[in-house]
Amino acid sequence: MFERLVFATDLSPASDMALDCVARWKGLGLRKVTVTHVHSLARSAGLEDILRRDHEPKLERQAQRLRDAGLFASWRLEFGVPYLELEGIARQEGAEAVVLGSHGSSWVKEVWLGSVADAILRHVQLPVLVIKVNLLAAMSGAECGHFCDSLFSRVLLATDFSPASSGAIAFAKLLARKAAPAFHLLHVQEHSRIVPHLTSRLDECNREDLRRLDALGSELRNAGASDVTVEVRFDHAVRGILSAIKAWNPGLVLVGRHGRGGRRLIGSVAHDVARESPAPVLVVPGEV
């Protein structure tokens, strides 16, 4: 699993919920978390000293929550372009992923998780994990604990078999070795790719896609996965993935994207799934 993470915080009580969830992953191998808040220079010019005096105690408080859970934790406060600063910090700290806490299914009204989260998901060249804190807020303490503890035990992997999926598939294999989860492997046949000129070959395409999924499933079982199921859906990509999430109820959704923010499947699809999915979503860059 992850040994080192960067946790992107907006310093709100809601971010505390996602942070407490992360703190429970010590048993999965997590050792160090860098709690990070980045102010956009365009919004903070001339206010740096005031913001530091306000934010530094809050960052220390959040880092201490992690230390109390037995993790090594530090914090960073930076000013600049958020997605660039976050990736730079992650590289400096040797982090393997960035964690974001989202407040709901729509990011349009959010300041921190709006255009900032969009840029992070599209451009950061590390896995980005999005957790919906509104779901955590609706749970009891016991329910929340179970949710966080079991996040990596039941994983839906959506793949289009392109190089964009390579990072997500590689992480799935790592996860199979370290956590032995159950996997549901999904490929969505997009209407735009099948209709109309390939309609007559739909059965042939489905057979080939199932063969690919079965082959990947065998690799995951050999790596240690406890169970693997496969599915091909004929739908629009985002709608098909979201429908499968609702039907299978995973703890984690795993999707890939093109290495430099490409918009093909899975590119903007990964962003839309991360925005709409009720389950946490891990977006992993593929080829650069």
How much is the radius of gyration in Å?
A: 19 Å
Which architecture of the largest domain would the CATH scheme give at its second level? 3-Layer(aba) Sandwich
Helix/sheet category: alpha/beta
**What is the terminal separation in angstroms?**
22 Å
What is the CATH domain class of the largest domain? Alpha Beta
Instruction: Tell me, rounded to a whole number, the average pLDDT.
Output: 86
In total, the number of domains comes to 2
Number of continuous helical runs: 12
Q: Indicate the percent of residues in helices.
A: 40-55%
> What is the helix/strand order?
EHEHHEHEHEHHEHEHHEHEHE
Largest sheet: 10 strands, mixed
Count of extended strands: 10
Strand order in the largest sheet: 3-2-1-4-5-10-9-6-7-8
Structure description:
- By secondary structure, the chain is of the alpha/beta class.
- It has two domains: 4-148, HUPs (Rossmann fold, 3-Layer(aba) Sandwich); 152-285, HUPs (Rossmann fold).
- Helices cover 47% and strands 23% of the residues.
- It has twelve helices and ten strands.
- It has helices at residues 13-23, 41-44, 48-68, 82-93, 112-123, 133-137, 141-149, 166-179, 191-194, 202-223, 237-248, 268-276, and strands at residues 4-8, 32-40, 72-80, 97-102, 128-132, 154-158, 182-189, 227-234, 252-257, 281-285.
- Strand 4 (97-102), helix 5 (112-123) and strand 5 form a beta-alpha-beta unit.
- Helix 11 (237-248) packs parallel to helix 12.
